[in-house]
Amino acid sequence: MSFFLDEMEACVPALRRYARALTHDRDRADDLVQDCLERAIRKSSLWRPTGPLRAWLFRILLNLHRNEIRRDRRTPAAFPIDALPLEPPSPAAQTDRLALADTARAMQKLSIEQREALLLVALEGMSYAEAAGVLDIPVGTLMSRVGRARENLRSLTENGQPHLRSIK
């Protein structure tokens, strides 16, 4: 069990990074990672040491996130009035910051399947085989999703016009 916990602890920064990229909310991401780690400990008897623990943890996190998305679709989100800014936001002065914001907005326009695949490969640096295992899809399907996601991002950030091609 000590090896399991040590290995799990080593995965926490990557899990946090992926959760923040999926949710765009630090608190929700932290909650998602905590839920993932709790479930992994509770279900540790289901993990088979023949496969990488990292991929198993990412799959748990991704399944929890998908469940959260389904739950959120059924119930409208409450938005506190005090969260509204008192003054309109001022435009960013730096070009890089604007480009990053454009990319983040474009990422949100991708289908969830494309976004999940691209984040695992580009942000987490997973191999195609490892990412396909996390998503439980064939490697060819993962490669197709990543390729389409990159094409869509390029189109959205270069032209400013959405030309999204969806693939499931």
From TrEMBL:
**Which residue range or ranges hold the RNA polymerase sigma factor 70 region 4 type domain?**
104-153
State one molecular function term (GO). Answer: DNA binding
Q: Which Pfam families match?
A: PhyR_sigma2, Sigma70_r4_2
Domain of life of the native organism: Bacteria
What are the PhyR sigma2 domain coordinates in residue numbering? 9-61
Keywords on record: Sigma factor, Transcription, Transcription regulation
Any one Gene Ontology biological process term? DNA-templated transcription initiation
PANTHER family with a match to the protein in the record: RNA POLYMERASE ECF-TYPE SIGMA FACTO, RNA POLYMERASE SIGMA FACTOR RFAY-RELATED
Record family assignment: Belongs to the sigma-70 factor family. ECF subfamily.
Q: Can you name this protein?
A: ECF subfamily RNA polymerase sigma-24 factor
